[in-house]
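Reminder: ligand-aware prediction takes two inputs, not one.
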Amino acid sequence: MHSAMYPGSFDPLTFGHLDIITRASDMFDEVIVGVLDNYRKIPLFSVEERVNILKEATKDMKNIKVEAFSGLIVDFARQKNCNIAIRGLRAISDYEYELQMAQTNRLLSKGSLDTIFLTTSLEYSYISSSGVKEIAYFNGDVSKCVPEFVAELIYEKYRQQKR
Ligand code: ADP
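Here is what comes back for the chain with adenosine-5'-diphosphate:
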């Protein structure tokens, strides 16, 4: 079986992420979306919430699995018996960081984990999770950036935070 993993924070999931997941699901027998529980960042959504959002958004794609992980991507990949990581590239500004991470992961995995980059679909190239949070915090319209149910959850989070 040809499987790949797509690691990320997904805080929150955007149409840009969903586009990468959909395209990857056509290329591989199975895609494991790894939702990072990052001890260094305080996310808007807990890792459980992010996993549930991703599960809901991908429920019609039969070869997508969503799982939380913490720690190194290489360790998660080894656990899942997976030797391909997928990452998305929006602009040249992503490239430097992504290249460094891909090379580090090859080194740490002794050559067994390779990274495949999918370039963003143009209509999503401007979308970032941090941008979405900024817009939603000030009650702006994020309907072009995230699925409707995700937008509602983000607005609700900020309503709670501002109470
Ligand atoms: P990170 O994993 O760096 O915390 P994200 O969870 O936002 O960041 O993104 C996971 C992956 O998806 C990264 O490779 C990122 O470049 C990619 N990505 C994010 N937004 C988009 C987008 N709009 N189009 C394509 N790829 C994207």
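The longest strand covers residues 30-36. The mean pLDDT is 96. We will return to this case in the review session.
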